Amino acid sequence: MPPADIPDMRALVMPVLLPVVAASSLIAGAGVAHAAPPGFPDVDAFSAVDPSGYQLMGAHPSMSGWVFSTPAGLRCQDSLIPDLGVFCQGPIAGSAPGTTMVSVSLTTEGAFSRSDLDPGAGSYPLLPTGAKLAAGNGVVCAVPTADTLACRAGKPDSWAADTPDPPDRHYGEHGFVVSPSGSWAY
C-alpha cells in the first residue's frame, strides 16, 4: 500500500490501460484483408452460371465441390471446403516453362507449380467466356477472355465478418490470373 500522500498508480493507470489493451487485442486478432491488387479482373462483374451444373459429389467433402474447364484448356476443381480453395491443371499460359498447375485458397496465396497428376477424364463442363462460377464457398472464378482465367478466394459471404483465424493459418483474400500476356498471383 502506498503512503497516503502518493496516489495508488493502479488507480491512475488501469482506467487508461485497460481500454488500450482491449482495443489492441481486437485489432491484433482481426484478419488483415488483402484486397485484389491493381490489374486484377473484377470477377464479381461477370454473369454467374448456375453452380449446380458444375457440382461434383465425392466420397468425402474434400473430394466434393465444383469442376469446370476453360476455353483455353484448363481443368479446374473448386473444393466444397473453403480452406482448400481451387486448383487448375493444364496449359498455364504466360508462366514458366513446365508449369502445369495453379492453385489458391483463402489461407494460401496463389501459386504456380508443376504437377504430373492426371486431372482425369471426367466431365469438366465449360465455363464460357464472360461468365463466372461463384458457388458460395468464397471462391469466384471468371473467364474474362477465351484465353484468360481469374480466380479469387476469400471468406465466404455466409461467414460472419469477425470469424477468427485458425491457430495455424490466416484467412485473407488471394487470387491468380492465367493469361498469355503474363500469369501472376497474390
What are the salient characteristics of this protein?
186 residues, six-stranded antiparallel sheet, alpha+beta, single chain, 12 strands, six-stranded mixed sheet
Could you characterize what this model shows?
This protein has 186 residues and is of the alpha+beta class. It has one domain. It has 1 helix and 12 strands. A 6-stranded mixed β-sheet has the order 1-8-9-10-11-12, with no helix packed on it. The protein has a 6-stranded antiparallel β-sheet with strand order 2-3-4-5-6-7, with no helix packed on it. A hairpin with a 6-residue loop joins strand 9 and strand 10.
Q: Average pLDDT, to the nearest integer?
A: 84
The strand line-up of the biggest sheet is 1-8-9-10-11-12
Computed over alpha carbons, the radius of gyration is 22 Å
Estimated structural class: alpha+beta
How many distinct helices?
Answer: 1
Distance from first to last alpha carbon: 56 Å
- What's the count of strands? 12
The main pleated sheet reads as: 6 strands, mixed
Name the helicity range.
Answer: 10-25%
- Overall body shape: globular
In the residues, how many domains can be counted? 1
Low-confidence sequence ranges? 1-33
> What is the H/E order?
HEEEEEEEEEEEE
Content of β-strand: 25-35%
